[in-house]
Structure formats: C-alpha cells, structure tokens
Amino acid sequence: QSQLVESGGGLVQPGGSLRLSCAASGFRIRGYDMTWARQAPGKGLEWVSSIYKDGSRTDYSDSVKGRFTVSRDNARNIMYLQMTSLQVEDSGMYFCAEGWGGPPYDLRGQGTQVTVSS
Fold first, then answer.
1. Cα(first)–Cα(last) distance of the chain, in Å?
2. Residue 88 CA to chain centroid, in angstroms?
3. Could you give the dihedral angle defined by the CA atoms of residues 41, 4, 78 and 39, in that order, rounded to the nearest 10 degrees?
4. Which SS3 state, helix, strand or coil, does residue 80 take?
5. Is the dihedral of CA 38, 10, 81, 72 positive or negative?
6. Smallest Cα–Cα separation from 35: which of 114, 78, 97, 83?
7. What is the pLDDT of residues 30-80, one digit of tens each?
8. Omega into 41 within 30° of 0, i.e. cis?
9. Half-sphere exposure of residue 85, counting CA atoms within 13 Å on the CB side?
C-alpha cells in the first residue's frame, strides 16, 4: 500500500525556520515528481512547490519563492521542504503529494501542522 507521511511541523515565531519531511512507503519516489501543498483554515488546498523526479528541476509559488527550498533524497525515499523567514500567512496544514503542480493529487499524505505566531 502506497503511503506518504509528513513530519516536522510545529509552532514557530515569525522569521523562524522549519524543515518538513515526507517519507514514502510502498513505492519508490524516484519514479515520480513530488509536490508540497498547504491548506489554511477555511481555505482551499494551495500548491507550494514541486520537484522533478531526479531533483533537477524545482518550482515554487510566488508566495514562498526565495524563502522555501524543496529537496529530495531518492535513496532514502524522503522529500523535504526547508522553510525560512516564516510569516503568519504561512500557517496551515502542509501536505506532500505525488505529482507536479496543483491539486488534485492521486496520492497525498495526512499532513503536518505549521503555525507561525508570536
């Protein structure tokens, strides 16, 4: 059974940093583009970043460009999202998903909560 599990979320002050992880099981991520998306309370799912199968290409939403960095370790079957200069507006549930770009996604994790607050 294919599964994605996110971790690394938490409470951080504005300007702080967090690194999210997405661990895959039941399949090898090396065969797939992968994506991070987020959902703020009361809002829809928003695409954040995508990374090509071999990591050679990445893309970011304008709202996070220059502050977030997506990476992957295909040997360990894990994808990461390094988030810096966090803003209150970055708060939400962060999901990893199989695929490139916006929703819908065929496979998505349960999410990890990120709260940016002073």
1. 40
2. 17
3. -10
4. strand
5. negative
6. 97
7. 999 999 999 998 999 999 999 999 999 999 999 999 999 999 999 999 999
8. no
9. 7
The reported pLDDT for the residue numbered 111 is 97
Residue whose entry in the numeric block shows the structure tokens 């997506």: 70
Q: Would you state the structure tokens that stand for residue 118, as one six-digit string?
A: 């002073």
Structure tokens at 57: 């290409």
Query: Which pLDDT tens digit goes with each residue over 6-44?
Result: 999 999 999 999 999 999 999 999 999 999 999 998 999
Q: What is the 3-state secondary structure (H, E, C) of the chain?
A: CCEEEEECCEEECCCCCEEEEEEEECCCHHHCCEEEEEECCCCCEEEEEEECCCCCCEEECCCCCCCEEEEEECCCCEEEEEECCCCHHHCEEEEEEECCCCCCCCCECCCEEEEECC
Does residue 46 contact residue 61 with C-beta atoms inside 8 Å? yes
Q: Which residues of 79-94 are buried (b: 16+ CB within 10 A; e: fewer)?
A: bbbebeebeeebbbbb
Interatomic CA distance for residues 83 and 90, integer angstroms = 9
